[in-house]
Known about the structure:
- It is built from 6 helices and 10 strands; from the N terminus they run E-E-E-H-E-E-E-H-H-H-E-H-E-H-E-E.
- By secondary structure, the protein is α/β, with parallel strands linked by helices.
- The chain is globular.
Amino acid sequence: MIEVKDVCKSFGKDMKVKHVTVTFDEGKLYGIIGRNGSGKTLLLKMICGLMLPTQGSIVVSGKEIGKDIDFPPETGAIIETPAFLDWKSGYRVLMELASIQKKIGRKEVREAMEQVGLSPDERKIVRKYSMGMRQRLAIAQAIMEQPKILILDEPMNGLDKSGVKEMRKLFCELRDKGILILLTSHNQEDISAMCDVVYEMEDGEMSSN
């Protein structure tokens, strides 16, 4: 479903992603581990169309990012720290986001919030959310339109032990429904507990783990 072909990303003379070639198939949960600055977040940004490769190509469902499409269709994503309109409740925030593409309505938004352990009836504004609640809201946003692809950059950030356990279970359930999930983590335990295939990035280069 995702084909990354000889992808490089440079900033001036500094090459941050180096000749990455990899294929990600539907119905599998892939993990990418690596230290900060290893290139893993840059790779996810390029797959999402937020940046274009300096060299190579990324093809999602037969369409090339940056040429055929700007953003991969039917994809939910969390890239870096999520930002929200923080003076509204979580439910209101997601409803506004849902109104952009008009694919879903109240029912799907409520279901997504409940899946991640948030109450859609909670009136607390997002500004008063804990870091863990904000991360749950970001995950709800990523899954609410029932995507076929999930791209998640450090999705466990800010979650306590019970939250991590709940999200691991959720991601495995979504994988079992045929969704392609690609996530990064600095936590080897997260990767070992969930992932079917693991890659490591170091100094911009990817290798199987």
